[in-house]
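Budget justification aside, the reviewers requested a transparent look at the raw inputs and outputs of the sequence design task funded under Objective 1. We therefore reproduce one unedited record. The lines immediately below are the structure tokens for a 280-residue chain.
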């Protein structure tokens, strides 16, 4: 069966840029460890997932519509415009694009909305016709898991495939319940605050008792524990905003012919790719 691999580009870039054991400089004195790590990991991920089609999706520079709902959304992220190129993962982005061109792997830079929504759009577009693997550590993608969609958390030999069984075992919920769960507990990575006193176990218990987030809010007076009842009642507006922030939607995207996404392994190793783009 055909299998589409969707790479969360910035997620993999950050993982490789900050996760490589040392800074690597080429013969011209250029820092290349982010590019080296990205290309090497990408080739291993493709092989690991036995993917027939590949696309890499990057976030571009643009206003984030979610900040209209919550001004503090992702306000805890580092402003890399204030750091040196050697400490800035985005300084290696142009070379990564060149490497993807050399490898004939399709990529897009999303400039109108978040890459997460773009990835969700491709899942909704192709999820019923082929298997899809999303490579990312962003837990928001758990809401997209289905019989045909899984999430890869790449860590070399310690990589984990997250499917419906994984989600049930780790959290005790289904993919359809993940947005409700995350709305209640919050997301530190995106600077989203959940309801006070509502941790993962309490959130799961509420979902199992009442159903969706909206059902929990509408039946808050039936929550047995007074402190949890009060927390949900006081947080109801915030929780509804959380839901809108976390829920991924479909967007209008360039319609690629699937033939454009076919991956053909020409046998080139990572160093061959770097040499091909002038970095080695």
């Amino acid at each position: 069966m055909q299998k589409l691999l969707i790479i969360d580009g910035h997620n993999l870039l950050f993982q490789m840029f900050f996760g490589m054991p040392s800074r690597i400089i080429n013969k011209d004195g250029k820092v290349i460890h982010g590019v080296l790590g990205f290309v090497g990991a990408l080739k291993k991920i493709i092989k690991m997932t036995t993917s027939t089609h590949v696309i890499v999706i990057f976030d571009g520079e643009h206003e984030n519509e979610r900040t209209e709902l919550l001004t503090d959304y992702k306000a805890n992220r580092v402003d890399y415009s204030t750091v040196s190129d050697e400490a800035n993962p985005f300084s290696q982005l142009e070379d990564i694009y060149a490497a993807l061109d050399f490898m004939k792997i399709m990529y897009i830079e999303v400039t109108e909305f978040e890459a997460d929504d773009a990835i969700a759009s491709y899942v909704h577009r192709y999820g019923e016709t082929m298997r899809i693997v999303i490579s990312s550590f962003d837990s928001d993608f758990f809401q997209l898991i289905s019989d045909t969609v899984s999430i890869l958390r790449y860590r070399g030999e310690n990589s984990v495939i997250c499917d419906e069984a994984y989600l049930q075992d780790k959290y005790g919920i289904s993919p359809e319940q993940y947005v409700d769960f995350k709305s209640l507990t919050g997301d530190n990575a995106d600077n989203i605050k959940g309801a006070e006193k509502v941790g993962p176990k309490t959130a799961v218990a509420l979902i199992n008792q009442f159903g969706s987030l909206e059902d929990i809010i509408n039946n808050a007076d039936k929550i047995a524990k007074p402190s949890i009842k009060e927390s949900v009642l006081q947080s109801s507006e915030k929780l509804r905003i959380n839901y809108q922030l976390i829920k991924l939607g479909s967007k209008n995207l360039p319609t690629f012919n699937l033939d454009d996404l076919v991956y053909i392994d020409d046998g080139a190793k990572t160093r061959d790719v770097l040499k091909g783009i002038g970095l080695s």
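The mean pLDDT is 91. The beta strands are 3-8, 53-59, 106-110, 131-135, 149-153, 160-162, 186-187, 192-193. Computational costs for records of this kind are itemized in the attached budget.
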